[in-house]
Amino acid sequence: xxxxxxxxxxxxxxxxxxxxxxxxxxxxxxxxxxxxxxxxxxxxxxxxxxxxxxxxxxxxxxxxxxxxxxxxxxxxxxxxxxxxxxxxxxxxxxxxxxxxxxxxxxxxxxxxxxxxxxxxxxxxxxxxxxxxxxxxxxxxxxxxxxxxxxxxxxxxxxxxxxxxxxxxxxxxxxxxxxxxxxxxxxxxxxxxxxxxxxxxxxxxxxxxxxxxxxxxxxxxxxxxxxxxxxxxxxxxxxxxxxxxxxxxxxxxxxxxxxxxxxxxxxxxxxxxxxxxxxxxxxxxxxxxxxxxxxxxxxxxxxxxxxxxxxxxxxxxxxxxxxxxxxxxxxxxxxxxxxxxxxxxxxxxxxxxxxxxxxxxxxxxxxxxxxxxxxxxxxxxxxxxxxxxxxxxxxxxxxxxxxxxxxxxxxxxxxxxxxxxxxxxxxxxxxxxxxxxxxxxxxxxxxxxxxxxxxxxxxxxxxxxxxxxxxxxxxxxxxxxxxxxxxxxxxxxxxxxxxxxxxxxxxxxxxxxxxxxxxxxxxxxxxxxxxxxxxxxxxxxxxxxxxxxxxxxxxxxxxxxxxxxxxxxxxxxxxxxxxxxxxxxxxxxxxxxxxxxxxxxxxxxxxxxxxxxxxxxxxxxxxxxxxxxxxxxxxxxxxxxxxxxxxxxxxxxxxxxxxxxxxxxxxxxxxxxxxxxxxxxxxxxxxxxxxxxxxxxxxxxxxxxxxxxxxxxxxxxxxxxxxxxxxxxxxxxxxxxxxxxxxxxxxxxxxxxxxxxxxxxxxxxxxxxxxxxxxxxxxxxxxxxxxxxxxxxxxxxxxxxxxxxxxxxxxxxxxxxxxxxxxxxxxxxxxxxxxxxxxxxxxxxxxxxxxxxxxxxxxxxxxxxxxxxxxxxxxxxxxxxxxxxxxxxxxxxxxxxxxxxxxxxxxxxxxxxxxxxxxxxxxxxxxxxxxxxxxxxxxxxxxxxxxxxxxxxxxxxxxxxxxxxxxxxxxxxxxxxxxxxxxxxxxxxxxxxxxxxxxxxxxxxxxxxxxxxxxxxxxxxxxxxxxxxxxxxxxxxxxxxxxxxxxxxxxxxxxxxxxxxxxxxxxxxxxxxxxxxxxxxxxxxxxxxxxxxxxxxxxxxxxxxxxxxxxxxxxxxxxxxxxxxxxxxxxxxxxxxxxxxxxxxxxxxxxxxxxxxxxxxxxxxxxxxxxxxxxxxxxxxxxxxxxxxxxxxxxxxxxxxxxxxxxxxxxxxxxxxxxxxxxxxxxxxxxxxxxxxxxxxxxxxxxxxxxxxxxxxxxxxxxxxxxxxxxxxxxxxxxxxxxxxxxxxxxxxxxxxxxxxxxxxxxxxxxxxxxxxxxxxxxxxxxxxxxxxxxxxxxxxxxxxxxxxxxxxxxxxxxxxxxxxxxxxxxxxxxxxxxxxxxxxxxxxxxxxxxxxxxxxxxxxxxxxxxxxxxxxxxxxxxxxxxxxxxxxxxxxxxxxxxxxxxxxxxxxxxxxxxxxxxxxxxxxxxxxxxxxxxxxxxxxxxxxxxxxxxxxxxxxxxxxxxxxxxxxxxxxxxxxxxxxxxxxxxxxxxxxxxxxxxxxxxxxxxxxxxxxxxxxxxxxxxxxxxxxxxxxxxxxxxxxxxxxxxxxxxxxxxxxxxxxxxxxxxxxxxxxxxxxxxxxxxxxxxxxxxxxxxxxxxxxxxxxxxxxxxxxxxxxxxxxxxxxxxxxxxxxxxxxxxxxxxxxxxxxxxxxxxxxxxxxxxxxxxxxxxxxxxxxxxxxxxxxxxxxxxxxxxxxxxxxxxxxxxxxxxxxxxxxxxxxxxxxxxxxxxxxxxxxxxxxxxxxxxxxxxxxxxxxxxxxxxxxxxxxxxxxxxxxxxxxxxxxxxxxxxxxxxxxxxxxxxxxxxxxxxxxxxxxxxxxxxxxxxxxxxxxxxxxxxxxx
Length: 1885
Hints:
Number of helices: 73
Strand order of the largest sheet: 29-28-30-31-32-35
Shape: flat
Strand content: 5-15%
Distance between the termini: 56 Å
Helix content: 40-55%
Radius of gyration: 47 Å
Low-confidence stretches: 1-20, 260-265, 681-686, 894-905, 941-1058, 1191-1205, 1413-1417, 1455-1461, 1509-1515
């Protein structure tokens, strides 16, 4: 650009000079002329004097910056003589930008393609994404949280393959450059425009509050909009703007007031410049900077006083001061496509970065400020080269760390871990605002962003001073949020600080850690790793010194902090160094004494975790449990628990095993449980948590021994392990797996997710359950997972809830039983897996299991499991697993020393809890065989030998009885206690006996221990006692065997010590043998000879010696014994000897055992036989009942006519009594009444309408959507109302197509009295309910389905004694009888309870239509009887039509082409039509005050000879019969005739109405017949009414005299030629709706099975035969609709006497009379008559709009579309799936009469029922009356999952099954029954 010379930049002008200057003259010429002149001047000279004079006036600082006239002048001047729009278009044509750079704010929808990305922050705007090629890529759509910019074209952020056609280095190669004179005015004006913005910001710098700042920016909104418009013109204009912003000379000349004073300017301007400079300097001083270290004080970005050199730097400064206003931020980011500008903006941003941290700390809205800061920083720091330059030039990394450290240094408090008086460490206060509001988040987010660049991360790790500062910062988090266990009372207020603590460690510590670690994959980078580890270790040691932790004894067991970031840094970097850089532990680890201290705090965290799970911290409230759960949660586990476990594993292998085990024992505090002394100060019977803590102790050891997460497990194996862990807890969706997989640095680390998933899981397609529930696509474990990969230990490590672990065990048990590997009554043990080998750089943690201390601990656990009743099987299984791992780790090596030690005759003294001295050697084989005889108790036992020992109380909950020595008891008292056992040896009770009385073990914890009772008394004790311990005085000298002599010899050596001792007499092997026997329930159950596994048998339990891990307790103990036997021959021999010693074999025992087995086999065989007999008896009973029912039904047909069938009885679901429905005590049927408009949505087009996705499609759609039955029927009703009296036309049609009343039932009955009491009880309930009880709603007491009314059951139902029978069979006679019945069927006037109930039911139906069914209430005012009968009869018609609709629109069998059930039809569950007819019929009879029989006589062709011989009685405004709806007449006749009508009468009605229907249909078809063919049929010589031609001839001859038919000149091209086949098909199609209704009535009224209709072509034929319209068989070629005509009188004489006084008319006379009636109307209103004749039409099934397969098409068109009413973009755009109308969901903008738009539309479009697709969430919202529910989504991703609110943003595809289910539920009116989560919408949707 051309720089403006300094001499020209004279902005000061005196007012007098200005008034006489040319500026005013130019302004008077007008904007366009002035702009032309200025453009010419700028093109000719670099010193546009007139322009600057104009700008002095236009941009005067004293004027408001948002003055519209000034802004408009700027736009016109910039255009240089063109209009601003023309100029914008021209400049935009020269846009040669290679990057998009579109800037967006929060909630903007953008895309991210991981396939094309280089930076994880890459994002694309919708336009660039759609135009790029991303097919098959891993992409997602997302809603921006903080704002962003499009990276299309930026090669540093994404690959070129993902660029759209407009962007990229090659996209603008041939683009022409802008002419030189095009931008000359812009170059001259832009510095002045930017200066005006700077002046405005300076003028408002005095504001302090947030609201004042927002107002100051709001005042400049129009000015900023102008700058945005300039920027949007493209690269040419952006180049001008960036030049003005980044030019230091321009900034100096325009802002330096000293240079202004030297020029000839007025004092006012000079004073303004001076004041502006002063305000600016004060503002700089008001924005302080953190105090930097001395060595960085010279850093430009850390200096105390800012110095700005460009407009850009000052604009960034004001952006910081005003807390990043959105519009200013977007303006700065709009020009980022300019590479030079991007670097300048980054420098300016870094220059102010340290001050931003202080703004975050002081801000009143830190969330909004944080988002806007990140909005800028993420665009700048995502470029690696740029970030590297900032780190080099401006010390960016130091600035970031110093800013973070300074922010946290202000909230430090003294740490209270351990002894607070000796703790000099300071940690952050998690209750501070900075921590709670995450004010640090933008800073750590930026740090993570720059550390994702390898070069920057290596620079960070190469700087010792930087690392030192970083670990100083992390030490502020070390030990924060200390928890102190409450031991007396519950905590009063639960703190919520742990949220802040865990978030801070994850975001500020873990994420940067993983970012750095991810780059350390090359051995050449080992120096960087060593430097980090060295600084980290130094920080840990400093922290240990600060908290004064010098020994293990300093641990406070009542305090814990879960936050040890320094330890975890050391752990993670050590793991990476060994795994990737092949370093050795010796190079990394500190001395053992330091390592021992380092392990204590991670160990303490583990102990506290288990303490919390066992309930020790319960008084601390739920928050402490939340900490434990968060510690192992998937987002934290890699960074916290895994790092801690790894560090402890390393410590376990590097420290002496005995030391490590003792340390763990001391921290878990389980020695009390392991003690054999019942007098210990913390005895197990006193502490209820010790049992659970021992299990936790064993669980921790199992985790420590078997977890290989960081000890050599490959990435693929780790991914599979984590997947298996999640799947075994329960089936998961794909997104759940991705979400719950442990993550590192915010992203799952595995790239082979799909391939690994396919190996361990099988996919289950989303399915639809019978009840309407929808299942998503799920993944379930494959069978081999349960066999080989299911790892309970790892699940214990990952299970956030203990119920998750139990769920995995339940699923495993189910699999084991399904495959036959477990018996149904057996409970399997967890199948703990043998750990995989560790990496060669490590020692196996299982080396701890070689330690004799560990052997002694396991011995104690097994002993307690054998002797005590309170040991859970989970504890025993863990002990067996640890022992099994020990055996697997042991090599069979025998040395002479070990043998000598093991079999030495000298016995060492063993002390209680002194586990490291129980065994002489670490040799497992010897220790397994070593028998522990006596265990000496602590010296404090002497205190219990006082004289008052007799008064010693038994501890609470103890099963122990203490018998002191030297006390006198009644004779036989001591004998009541069983002798104590040690193997087979009796130990005399002589000094002090501790006895456990017999007790049944707790079945819930140890169900297998019940088998103890079956063990023979000789093997354990006389009383089957589970545990016996003898406390003996060592002075005892009684003996009875050689072993006893040996014991006495050993005892005498210790006579002087006088210790108390517990006699045990067990070895590990003997304990295992006895436990196997107890768990099996069989003495001597283990068979050593059966050590070779047999060949595997499918569906049978595996053998213990096999490799299977599926089995119960005896299975795993046997497996362990087999391994012990194979490990060492001496162990095998010892097992055999021990078995013989415990269970000596005798011949009698062997025979008894065999007899018992034979008896067991006989018992099982007998049980199987009884089961088979029971099944046979059940089937026989069912057969007999079915046969009896068949016989009864056959007998019904042969009963005499006057036989009275017993009255039906109904079961009341409330009182449970069965009774008939009577007049005085009626029964009712539970029903649900709904307003329905389903029928009105029937379409004229067989193909469903498609949801429009373009503006062009919407125009076509708006025309076609109106072609519905409802809209056409509205037009017909309106025309009928114009032409006829209401009393006439209301009897000619049925309404209800738009808002009918649908009635459905669950099929349950109740007394009306019981219902009233039930409703009263519901009304009296105080709690809120989902029922509108005040409107009559209730839940069926039995099935809980929604109901709102009840249909009284007429006593006539099921009573054939009152059946109205016909005495004649001829059609004329039956027609005459019907006429008489219509005339002589008076309504009942007596009021009875059942009549009252029917009235209430009718009122309920009327209420349902309130507000919806306007036809019923507006057609008559006041309503006439005809109007009310119209309402009543329309209810019948609506329910019959809906029944047909539910069956698919036809009565064809619901079979598809392959013979399978059709998916487009739903069989109605239960019909309530017959009770409904009884209720409606009673009201219709009361309302019918006109002579209905006259209409019937006219239809049937009979005349009462005594009253009126006239065939046609023409009445004014009377609807001709040929214009009436036969179906409407049918419903009227049925309601007005007796309900118990014989089938003969019904058939006669159908025949007569079909005659009328046929000629109506035929008249409609031939109305546009050409003149030639009408003449042809007029001249036919013979008329046969059984043929189509004959019927046409009759109609033509009857109507030829009138003006009904149009001639060819009127018809034009629509004139129709005669085509017999076409006309026949059309006539049959018009007749089918009536035939379907008639067939359903026959089916429901008379119980006849509907015919099987194979195809739609055969439907007409099958129905006319079913309805007996045709009874004779005929050839298919001769069949036509006319053969179904049935006339009371043939074609002979015009009249024939029938039944006195009736006369029957001939067919021709009847039809001619109908036609004459029609001609009379045509003579009066020809056009109306012609239109009304066309009232039959083929309507197709109502369907929802068809949706596109890809959801993105809907989203792109609708999510930014404006509402047609309020013209705003709704927050939740919703589209009606019935009509495609877009509504503003939950918005007030379109609310009418306090009803929101969606609710209003549901009443208008669906009679209160509507389905809306919420575009912004992909969910369907269903509105039903006053309720609404989230139905679900019909769009699923490729894994069959919903994506509610589009949070995952994955491509979504239409699920045809779900959409069809939605449509079926709508058609069948089952929303209320299939959806449960309804809420009251309160008209707010």
